[in-house]
Amino acid sequence: MVKSTERTIVFDELAGQYDNTGVEFFGPIAHKLLELLGPRPGEHVLDVGCGRGAVLFPAAAAVGPEGYVLGIDIAEAMVTATAADVAARALDHVEVQVLDGIAPELPAASFDLITASMSAAHFPDPFATAVSYARLLRPGGGIGMTGPVPPPALSEWDLGALRVDRIIAAADPAALAAAHPRVAALYGEYPFGRPGRICDALRAAGFTEVSEQRHDVVLTAPTAQALIDWTWSNGLRVYWELVPAARREEVAAELAAELTAHAGGGPVTAVYPVFHYLGRLPATGGAK
Question: Are β-strands 94-98 and 137-148 bridged in parallel, bridged antiparallel, or unpaired?
Fold first, then answer.
């Protein structure tokens, strides 16, 4: 059962524009993740937090019609939109379901690979999640996750010329106090978790060949406003919604001025630091 929470509401609202503003972000992350994992024809893949299919569709192409890809997401509107895309492409070997990725209730040992791009790395208990995923994988199965490189605090989150710290600093204390606890917790120490916790959790859950690789994404937009619009089309929207409506235009103008100055007449760019986490179960013996 999936309960409606702050997390589902935000991503339900984003479904129509998620990964669809012209700024390439989820696609390059997914491409690198699948390059590192190497899905093969005939394999079964579980894509956790599938969103609008950045990993789902290239994974489906990699495993081919003899394989199978299941995408799960907690946001019903996101699943509805992606399922429509699956149907339009006539991908009979792809399925999308509303399901919480923290501990999916799916048959054990039913997948060769699990992907979780910009999703599971944010879950509150990485060890419990890793154990859950190990149960779903066949012996020798692989896992690949991505997430932001974790800063000590949101005020130190560096996206290059895109000064997200300005959005963070403009949050209304009253709105923050009334926010969902998981949103409020982002304003504390290590909002995305402490460095090393994902790899530690994977090893503790029985994964081997565990590694953490950094592959930053260069965000490119034709104008500063286009890049600011992009921040409203993904999880960064959470922070904007904590900024008083009367201040949003002022903050956006400050961001636009800095982005434009940094561009120097060329394309507007920013850099999003991303970690890729990889692991594989032993070929025999299964998970812990």
Answer: unpaired
